[in-house]
Amino acid sequence: MDLLVGDIVQGVVSGFGSDGEGVVKSDGYPIFVPFAIKGEEIRARVVHVKKDCAFAEVVDVLSPSEDRIKPLCPYFGKCGGCDLQHISSHVQLEIKRDTVQNALKKIAGLDIDVPLPVRLNDWEYRNKLSLPFAYNKRSKRISLGFYEKRTHRVVPMKWCPLHGQWAARLIECVTEWATEYSISVYDENERTGLLRHIVARMLDTLSLTVVINGSRLPRLAELADKLKKYFADFAIYVSENTRDDNVILGKTVRLVYGAEKKQNLGKFRAVVSPKSFLQVNAMVCDVIYDEAARALENFDGDIVELYSGVGILTAQIALRLQGARITAVEIEPSADEDAKNLMKSLGLSERVENVCGDAATFLQGLDFCGDENKIDDEILRSPYYLGEATRACAKRALILDPPRKGCDKRVLDSATGFEKIVYISCNPQTLARDLKILARSHVIDCVKPFDMFPQTSNVETLVVLSIIDEKAAT
Questions:
Q1: Largest Cα span, the chain
Q2: Taking the CA of residue 188 as centre, how many other CA atoms within 13 Å lie in the half-sphere pointing to its CB?
Q3: Rounded Cα distance, 167 and 201, in Å
């Protein structure tokens, strides 16, 4: 295609891309258009051209889809947090189902009929909020907001419908405080200024972390006074981050106001550190934990969990499966220490062993009792067999809950001996890549997506695999 940036194209949207954008094809050449819906005829302006595809922005919708709806959020289209608010709920689910199904087909060569994602809520589901600070030189006011998609331009916001009223009240308190006391805002170009981000989590109580380009947060008492207007109980943390990169939190987080309180996490209560990973949609998260436990409820061997973090998933599974013995492996020492403390506080230390180390190295050290140790059953049953008794082969299940980049290939190559594998993924593309390897030794029992992030194109997926019975296969 001889397209140039600025060209206007017109056509009918033939489908959706993996990020929920509409796709218009011209002689087979795909043009990805955010906020366009399948079936619509549109005019769009080309903004980026590559050898195999182009990207464009909607200029005009000539024939709107029946599934086009008015977005609830006034910042939609500017803020980079949501990309599907303009589409009806049932089509959102179809997009997410197709994203998983197409990734499995195109990347892994797996032709699997994937069901629609489980959706339990539409709005006000997020328990965590991360916002950068911005300063308006004209109004001399400080604001908080999300970045525009693929930029570092802040869209000032007063509320977000994915978080609810707690976020609106928090934004009001923090921006009033910062503006009233003229606290400087970090400038990425000059690398000057103090306030960088807030990271907040609202469970039973509010946890607020202020990320600063320095070592001291001024006017702390005044910030607390502002928060008392809306929040009965809260804790304030400070994280020092003087690095010139895109990582939000610094290496350390310290409590500077209030006290850490145990929070309700479904099957148990525990203190949640600002640096701890916790799923943002608690209602959907509980259902995923139930499904993962159900997949292993009749399994009578030991369980190995990799990428176990601070032990939230480990504890959820251990409490749902009262007889389960779990070895949880995490490479980050501080997270491993937090996990050990959590297991101790829940009385799970006797059934859960926490190991601090590399996941692949740990798996390579496991003994599954290889083929050289197996003797034919007919020989073993013979009264004339005088050989030594063979040791029992280990029977194990594996839980994988990796970050978006998926599993280390060494982990996948070492997973062949596990009888059951439960894989929880937040990225259909890396999930499909990993399943292509796991499917060599295992059969996929089920693929079940969950709408952890309504109004966005993201989807969580749970996959259960069983080892291929070589005798049955032959």
A1: 95
A2: 12
A3: 9
Tell me the residue type at 73. C
Which of 138, 128, 137 is CA-nearest to residue 185? 137
One domain, residues 341 and 404: yes
User: How many whole angstroms separate alpha carbon 169 and alpha carbon 159?
Assistant: 8
Is 219 found in the same domain as 290? no
The verdict on whether 426 is a catalytic residue reads yes
Number of residues that make up the chain: 474
Query: Per the structure, how many domains does the chain have?
Result: 3
Which among 378, 369, 320 is positioned nearest to 346, based on CA atoms? 320
Domain annotation covers residue 99: no
Tokens encoding 72:
């609830």
The pLDDT score that the predictor gives to residue 323 is: 92
Q: Which helix (H) or strand (E) holds 176?
A: helix 165-180
Q: Would residue 460 show up in a list of annotated catalytic residues for this protein?
A: yes
14: its two tokens = 């033939």
Rounded to whole angstroms, the Cα distance separating 56 from 23 reads: 10
> Whole-structure pTM over 0.70, yes or no?
yes
Q: Are residues 162 and 60 in the same domain?
A: no
The catalytically annotated residue of 176, 180, 426, 470 is: 426
Q: Are 284 and 120 in contact (CB under 8 A)?
A: yes
Cα 472 to Cα 474: distance, rounded to the nearest angstrom: 5
The pLDDT value given to residue 474: 37
Tell me which of 240, 305, 330, 460 is the catalytic residue: 460
User: What type of residue is 379?
Assistant: I
Cα 441 to chain center, whole Å? 27
Range of the domain at 323: 282-368+392-473
> What is the structure's pLDDT at 378?
62
**Residue 371 has what pLDDT?**
45
Residue ranges for the chain with pLDDT beneath 70: 1, 369-393, 470-474
In the sheet with 396-400, reading across from the earlier edge strand, the strands are 352-356, 326-330, 302-306, 396-400, 420-425, 460-467, 442-450
**What whole-number distance in Å separates Cα of residue 105 and Cα of residue 130?**
35
> Residues 6 or more apart from 350 whose CB is under 8 A from it?
none
Amino acid at 228: K
What is the Cα–Cα distance from 304 to 363, expressed in whole angstroms? Answer: 9
pLDDT for residue 204: 97
